[in-house]
Design a protein that fits this description.
Elements (H helix, E strand, L loop, with lengths): L3 H7 L10 H13 L6 E5 L5 H9 L4 E6 L13 E5 L5 H11 L4 E6 L5 H11 L3 E10 L37 H12 L2 H5 L8 H11 L1 H9 L1 H14 L8 H4 L5 E7 L2 E6 L1
Helix pairs in contact: 1-2, 4-5, 5-6, 8-9
């Protein structure tokens, strides 16, 4: 089978801004692991169109929409399945219009290689991800700019701070979260949707905390066990406060993206939709 890497190598420009060949290895592996042959592809950030042409040759039956903030004079005449359009990656209205017009049944593969600014990439993800099909793949490139002090939202890497003593358990393990690095790390949150939504993981009420405390203190536990009416009452109160993920309405979940997994590679983050 012809791979993306093989096609890319044949006419690789060695332009320092174009996609590294190692990225194509990651894409080939990801598509194989996810058993995905994309027929609807959205590329955000085109530059000279080198990777767009690679995608076109590898997937000639696919519809490929390639968008960029500034259109260049790129010859796509030999690539009939490419649609080259102007669009700002933070323009919600235009992004959604493009997705609805060109991908009415959803998108299989998104490659985001635009500004590499965390805030912008986060907005793009928010606007485009809902159009990704279940089982689809959303790829974010060059997230390492978050470590660049010269980048608009980057900064020097800082080691995480963890107390050396076990007497006090650290509730936070702070580490570098600037720019694209912070955005990529935030995607991991979405893979824990069940735990985020399930109130059993959040002891928010004083009754819940009291019952947990009672279970930890033998005297209180014995007292509750000896008073069946009180035990039944507390159990009833607690059960009404517990929402399983299935019971929680979508509006209370905040429409968080459903991610099956997030895979982080050198320079590339791959988010797979559940």
């Amino acid at each position: 089978m012809t791979t993306l890497r093989y096609i890319a190598e044949k006419n690789y420009s060695n332009d320092p801004v174009t996609k590294p060949l190692a990225y194509y290895d990651i894409y080939d592996r990801t598509l194989l692991e996810e058993n995905l042959t994309p027929r609807c592809i959205l590329e955000i950030g085109v530059y000279q169109g080198e990777s767009t042409k690679v995608l076109s040759q590898r997937f000639p039956e696919a519809r490929i929409v390639a968008i960029d903030l500034n259109l260049r004079n790129i010859d796509f005449s030999g690539y009939p399945n490419i649609h080259y359009l102007q669009c700002d990656q933070t323009d919600r209205g235009k992004l959604e219009a493009i997705c609805k017009e060109h991908f009415p049944d959803g998108i299989d593969l998104v490659i985001e290689d635009a500004s590499h600014i965390g805030h912008f990439s986060s907005l793009t993800f928010k606007y485009v991800f809902p159009f990704l099909k279940s089982g689809g793949v959303y790829i974010v490139e060059d997230w390492g700019t978050g470590y660049w002090t010269s980048w608009i939202d980057g900064g020097t890497y800082s080691e995480r701070s963890v107390p050396v003593s076990t007497r006090r358990i650290a509730r936070t393990m702070r580490s570098h979260d600037l720019g694209m690095v912070g955005f990529v790390k935030s995607l991991i949150d979405y893979t824990a949707e069940e735990d985020i939504s399930d109130r059993r993981a959040r002891g928010t009420s004083w009754i819940s905390r009291a019952i947990v405390l009672g279970g930890q203190i033998g005297l209180m536990r014995n007292m509750v066990d000896r008073l069946p009416n009180l035990k039944a009452r507390l159990t009833s109160i607690l059960s009404t406060q517990i929402d399983t993920p299935e019971k929680i309405p979508a509006d209370r979940r905040g429409d968080r993206p459903r991610l099956k997994s997030v895979k982080v590679f050198r320079g590339v983050c791959v988010a797979c939709k559940a």
